[in-house]
Amino acid sequence: MSESVVADFVGRFYTDEVESDKPVNGRVLLSQKRLVLARDGGKTTIPLSTIFDVTAGFVPNELEAFFHDTVTVAYERNGQKRVAVVEGKGDSVDRFTQILFRVLLNGTTVTMKHPARIGGRVTDSTAQQAKLALKNCAVQFQGRSDSFVIDLATVSNIERTTQHIGGSQRAVLEISHIVDDSALLSVVAVPSSRKTNIFGRFVRLEYGDVQEAVQELTHTEEELETLVALYSTDGSANLGSLLDAEPAQITMVLNSLREDGLVRDGEGKTKLTPKGRVAVTMHLERINA
């Protein structure tokens, strides 16, 4: 590899060029142009321009028995979709995944509206261009006059839709997140379907972990009603009337939700945390399914 290497570690991997039905040991090298998986007797070279998906922790079913801490890279070759599964020791795969996302996305010019909505109020924000600068568990949007950062730990929902933005109808990512206790919606249009998919995966890194944590929780009907009420009223719900419960019972419900990290107190209100908003979103999706 003639260009500068930005990641280099020894691990295990599998591609369809491996002459085995099991992963092999080898060297993983990443530059600004390509990903190389080198093994005894050969190597697989993947131009970064052919990568259309990066999934942390996902392994194809036929390889689940062989891998643990992994990242799966999907790419195209000769008109066919292929995958490479990479595994490393310690935190090498996590660091590699972060670097890979940065190499694929940093410097990409996007069109966005920020914020497109604050709480339930649609703003008059106009579309503007910004460059992506990925950080550890965060993404910075660098505009001509200013910039802002979305902390991935504050993301409560992400949805791919179609909107009229920047003078045309385009695929966009609607990112719901929290800033200073306010619920914001930012709309981001990435210049290609391939990069839209990859950027969506990056934003979902923390969001996916939060979803898994929420799925492990169990709640009573009262607790779910409380979460939905706080979500709908931005913390201003009259819980006594809603739940037809005594103050002591309401206190018990709120304490349970605090212990699960779903609500917090601030500015004289009980508000949902990002994790709490994810819990409400998942609950409403189950109801409407």
From TrEMBL:
InterPro entries named in the record: CheF1/F2
Keyword set, alphabetical order: Chemotaxis
GO BP: chemotaxis
Coiled-coil regions listed: none
A Pfam family the protein falls into: CheF-arch
Subunit architecture: Interacts with chemotaxis (Che) proteins as well as flagella accessory (Fla) proteins.
Function of the protein: Involved in taxis signal transduction.
Protein known as: Taxis protein CheF
Organism from which the protein derives: Halogranum salarium B-1
Species classification: Archaea, Methanobacteriati, Methanobacteriota, Stenosarchaea group, Halobacteria
